[in-house]
């Protein structure tokens, strides 16, 4: 194995572990194998061990050495967090304190951290400031939503949110400049993109990976909301839909990738787990989608996903991000039950829909279940209304839509981050 191949594999392991911190070495090796990267569990353990040692060594350096290692002590000129992550700050203020200013300590707990001194919270708060969503930064600050943040978390119309999202992205001069530089061209492969960021935009070499990751994630987020002018922004390098559908996993899992996802309107998503097929697809478009939107959520289904990574990884990501989930248990579909298991593992509230009670496992019938009968007059209208009501209630009282073994974890969840 050449030195370049070794470095690339090690970086692939580090990148995967950064997004999946609790993944076991065997699971990491399996996931990378699906991407065509051949590594063993022992190799993964070795990379993780070396990374931890290097991190400890960096923490053990003196103040002057740390400044050099962190870019000569210069403050970060761009957010370490994505726009989607930064929005959680003004949202917490809006939802937990009716939009009134909050202390950093109270805000930290509202977002899900134990205390304001947590560096992850401070990074997230700093990012929200750099995007222009809030004012006030630091562990003793009084944090307040500004107009741009209000237009995102509580807009008067979808267009207001679109324009505010674009304005927040453009608040970061480096992101705006890079987007204008590439225009309508495809962003090149990693090495060339990173070199350009360093040469043209003076992004420090030790920070360029973070810049690139946040920048690309933001572009995908803006496109999801069909933000104006995104056709002139850089095109991310993603797998072709046809190529993705030819992968063995796609055949086994039975998922197809949409050519163009429906533009988002809402910040909160509702992931829909259901079988595919002519009638189910009609139910989704004509009953589920309008009902979910009426409840104030953005509907997302597996076949609408269009990004890099394996199908299962994308589904898991959407389940983790969703505020609530809707599961159609018709015919006890195996894929639906697999996704349902992931949802319960992620401690997410799920509303069930089924044409008959026998489709609902006995030990889940105590949760929110909507039964419908297509022989009844106006059954579709009634089903739409009930889905809307059940989803709203699931948001207000999530514990009633989560199985008993996980409910204690829901109670402990706020402020469990350390």
How would you describe this protein?
- With 418 residues, the protein is an alpha/beta fold.
- The chain folds into 3 domains: 3-69; 83-232, no CATH class; 253-412, 3-Layer(aba) Sandwich (Rossmann fold).
- It is 54% helix and 7% strand.
- The protein is built from 20 helices and 8 strands.
- It has helices spanning 3-19, 25-34, 41-59, 63-69, 83-86, 88-97, 104-111, 119-130, 147-153, 158-170, 173-182, 190-201, 208-224, 241-245, 248-253, 278-294, 311-321, 334-345, 379-396, 404-412, and strands at 102-103, 134-135, 142-145, 269-273, 298-301, 324-328, 350-354, 369-371.
- A 5-stranded parallel β-sheet has the order 5-4-6-7-8, with helices on both faces.
- Helix 1 crosses helix 3, helix 9 (147-153) crosses helix 10 (158-170) and helix 16 (278-294) packs across helix 19 (379-396).
- The longest helix has 19 residues, at 41-59.
- The model is unreliable at 2-7, 61-71, 237-259 and 414-418 (pLDDT under 50).
Condensed summary:
The chain has 418 residues and is of the alpha/beta class.
What descriptors fit this protein?
418 residues; alpha/beta; Rossmann fold; five-stranded parallel β-sheet; three-stranded antiparallel β-sheet; 8 strands; 54% helix; 7% strand; disordered N terminus
Question: Taking Cα atoms only, what radius of gyration do you get, to the nearest Å?
Answer: 23 Å
Q: What is the 3D shape? A: globular
The helix-and-strand class reads: alpha/beta
Strand-residue proportion: 5-15%
Q: Please report the distance between the alpha carbons of the first and last residues.
A: 40 Å
Our count of domains comes out at 3
Number of strands: 8
Helix content: 40-55%
Annotated CATH topology of the largest domain: Rossmann fold
The CATH class assignment of the largest domain is Alpha Beta
Strand order of the largest sheet: 5-4-6-7-8
CATH architecture tag of the largest domain = 3-Layer(aba) Sandwich
Please outline the major beta sheet: 5 strands, parallel
Uncertain segments are: 2-7, 61-71, 237-259, 414-418
In DSSP terms (H or I, runs of 4 or more residues), the helix count works out at: 20
Helix/strand order, N-terminal first: HHHHHHEHHEEHHHHHHHEHEHEHEEHH
- Average pLDDT score: 83
CATH H-level homologous superfamily name of the largest domain = Flavodoxin domain
